[in-house]
Amino acid sequence: MPAPTRPQADLFIIGGGINGCGIARDAAGRGLSVTLAEMGDLAQATSSASTKLFHGGLRYLEFFEFRLVREALEERETLLAAMPHISWPMRFVLPWSPDMRFEADTPTSRILSWTMPWLRGRRPAWLIRLGLFLYDNLGGRKILPGTRRLDLSRDPLGLPLKPGFRLGWEYSDCWVQDSRLVVLNARDARARGATILTRTRVTRAERADGLWRITTEGPGGTRIHHARALVNAGGPWVEDVIRNVAHIPSAEGVRLVRGSHIVVPRLYDHDRCYFFQGTDGRIIFAIPFEEDFTLIGTTDMDHRAPPGEARCTEEERDYLCAFASRYFARPVTPDQVVWTYSGVRPLYDDGAKSATAATRDYVLSLQDGEAGGAPLLNVFGGKITTYRRLAEGALARLAPFFPQAGGDWTARVPLPGGDFPVDGVEALVAQLQARHPFLSPRLSRRLVRSYGTESFLLLDGAASLGDLGRDFGAGLTEAEVMWLIRHEFAQTAEDILWRRTKLGLHMTEAQRRELEAFVDRHHAAHSAAE
């Protein structure tokens, strides 16, 4: 029996990470018909394994990546205005030590080695201050406060550190819940008419009669789709899609770089983050995480295994513990680690000598096919902060094929739940508690930080905690679980505990198993009803 055929779309997008979902949202908002297929869950790979920052990339200035840094700095505030529930300003403390070193092959280190050989690869304090001055001024900063100098021997921000650190600076960047960012882009794309298919693998894509003919395998079996253009946003699998799905020869490729993180019980009481520079030229962050923990990362290591096999190795765990322990007065040890995660960054292979030096910029490669056939756009690299600009760039490359499409529109347009002022979180929490006084302050804040104004829809009609159904632990109720299943593409307990939320960190193994059984029973009953 031939596979069922779906109606023709303007765009078919492979990949449900931030780039794929961002392009789907942008394209659907321009009036194009869009289908997106993701082989697993949304944000299942790289897009849920970031350091969870909207940041300009302070260290990229050493590589003279001024355009990338400026674009990322401009985007911080653009994105902040569109999603004040899942993103918020954070202040970073950067302690200085004379032991700090450049990585040997950065352009800045080479220039200083030639002009100031007596530095012997050290990062001088004046150069860091110059970098922070550029960081404050390259991107037209309006919302975020600027840099200030710190005396860490007197400032309370120096208390968690070893006593030898005196000079430091405090500067601004932004936090973002990366997995929720992806899901909210997918939700908005669907609301604008896009078809979002999860757990659906693309097995073949070929040009036929001026269109792309795409074969998928998903919950409904084998399907055939037709599209006027194909976007390959496969992330770490982008090369696999080119060679083994579309069967197109290409000299372009990605450099897979693994970034691993560790999570430990909270190391200090304040809400600032730390930016630590190492003697090997690398940097790591220590960030307050999920109220009770500190997130430490990331590593930069070439990854030679399949992308889906990214794991934080014992070597990386020990490296991060030792790195943080050079700064914190109380050592960070492997036995403190309660969770690790690791993702593979699909960096464009620019031939850099080291993983750290490989460009974080994105490359959009358009192939028209023979005689102007159906176009293929391959997306290489990118970073979470510039996903919206990448999507605009992708639509600009495809514009000649879709003259009917609308123009750029996504800047500062709220994602679902983000339709309130940047500084309006506290007011929204107060409103939620006033309407639902049975909520604890902690739960109210978590709901607002996850769902924004949609918290009121999630809780609609509830006059007590009992009205929200079963409590699975850590404040996760049946009402929230069903919201995530019905509205946010969640299909498994893992989707809920580690991507839509991070409540798996706060729950016992027994509670996690109870949730898993509930979700399985729900899907079984739903399938039987169909």
Structure description:
With 530 residues, the chain is of the alpha+beta class. The chain is 31% helix and 23% strand. It is built from 14 helices and 20 strands.
Number of contiguous helices: 14
Largest sheet: 10 strands, mixed
Mean pLDDT: 92
Q: Give the low-pLDDT segments.
A: none
Structural class: alpha+beta
Task: Sum up the structure in keywords.
530 residues, alpha+beta, ten-stranded mixed sheet, eight-stranded mixed sheet, 20 strands, 31% helix, globular
Describe the SSE topology.
Blueprint (H helix, E strand, L loop, with lengths): L8 E6 L3 H12 L4 E4 L15 E2 L11 H17 L4 E9 L11 H9 L9 H13 L10 E4 L15 E10 L1 H14 L3 E3 L3 E8 L2 E8 L2 E12 L5 H8 L8 E12 L7 E5 L5 E7 L3 E5 L3 E2 L11 H12 L13 E10 L13 E6 L8 E6 L5 H12 L26 H11 L5 H11 L3 H4 L12 E3 L2 E2 H10 L5 H8 L8 H21 L1
Parallel strand pairs: 1-2, 1-10, 2-7, 4-12, 10-18
Antiparallel strand pairs: 3-6, 4-6, 5-6, 8-9, 9-10, 11-14, 11-15, 11-16, 12-13, 13-14, 17-18, 19-20
Helix pairs in contact: 1-5, 1-8, 9-10
